[in-house]
Write a structure and sequence with these properties.
Alpha-Beta Plaits; 29% helix; alpha+beta; 87 residues; globular; 5 strands
């Protein structure tokens, strides 16, 4: 069960998928000329939060359970994304 959300702000491109899909858990943050996602501090529906995180094109959203384990994304997924962008 998701109990915490973290967003890696340097990875976030501000596409808005998360805050549109789940405004209970994500909000837009205007930093100059850019928008970034921030967790609201609240939680939404578990399935919608998961879908919002899975829809993030840069895997900037981490979903964490009560024990502190990362439920999404997997280390393999982050490594694959990093490898695909190393050129």
């Amino acid at each position: 069960m998701i109990s915490k959300i973290e967003v890696i702000d340097v990875a976030c491109i501000g596409c808005g998928t998360c805050w549109v899909a789940c405004p209970q858990a994500f909000k837009e943050h205007d930093i100059g000329d850019d928008l970034k996602a921030l967790p609201t501090g609240g939680l939404g529906d578990q399935h919608i939060m998961r879908a919002a995180a899975e829809g993030c094109p840069t895997l900037a959203i981490s979903l964490i359970d009560e024990a502190g384990a990362v439920l999404f994304p997997s280390e393999e997924a982050r490594a694959a994304l990093t490898a695909s962008s190393d050129w």
